[in-house]
């Protein structure tokens, strides 16, 4: 995350406008969202009598800006709001919302103007899909940015040399963990077997943090006549691209393939430990990542928390995680001359998120 006490600054090429912000990560607390605030520094000589606007946008991108197939753009604005900051439409003192703005205004002088935006309640968090090494252009992503520009009016085409863009992120931290222990179980009855097979899979808690080991407890009571083998334990990331195509990406981001077996009439009780990390999934296409700022590292995407009464379609991409425990069971057929095999799996959903930082 962005370090404390750092001012992020970016100027347009013609030096007419510049944006100063104290942070680039804005937290969705579910019941409230951090507002976006900062200061715009203008050069009245370079502005040349034009107006200065500040824009906050949330964009879903699923292709390069220069790609346009049969009139279909490869990006969509989920949210867009623009405000005029110069000439000022209200007294500067009334536009100040934070102490950091006050400090920046004192330091930058009379040509510095504060700006302030509030996120609507229904926007997604920053997330992107990792491209393959051979992919070119911009990745599929939900992106946020603050943009300042000079223009006669806000609807005219913006000149790049007179505008400046600063990427920001909207993030969520893990909510208070419930006391519920996630678990799932299955009972299988097989043909030509008098007794069933029972498997139970459980986790220690519902919410795990990035980089934290996930302990998967597996209990199998094999009362059947089948032999179980090749037990596999995986953490799967499921990404639904819901805005335009309902694409679905399912990727195992942590995997343990064992040679454990459970012969007929026996039990198995074991704990497997997995750690889903981006480091083990570099360059794999379709892995969802937390939104990335330039020159900063990121990690696997956090689980999406969709608020009640919010349409999932406007979320762009929804990310979830589950533990999947599977095994093959073998049996003989036609007087034990042919051996057949099939797979059984149990799934346990959970959340993967960042812990809430300590206050202060």
TrEMBL record:
One of its GO terms (cellular component) is photoreceptor inner segment. SUPFAM superfamilies: E set domains. GO terms for molecular function: G protein-coupled receptor binding. Residues 193-357 form the Arrestin C-terminal-like domain. GO terms for biological process: G protein-coupled receptor internalization; nervous system development; signal transduction. It holds the Pfam family Arrestin_N. Belongs to the arrestin family. This is S-arrestin. It comes from Oncorhynchus tshawytscha (Chinook salmon).
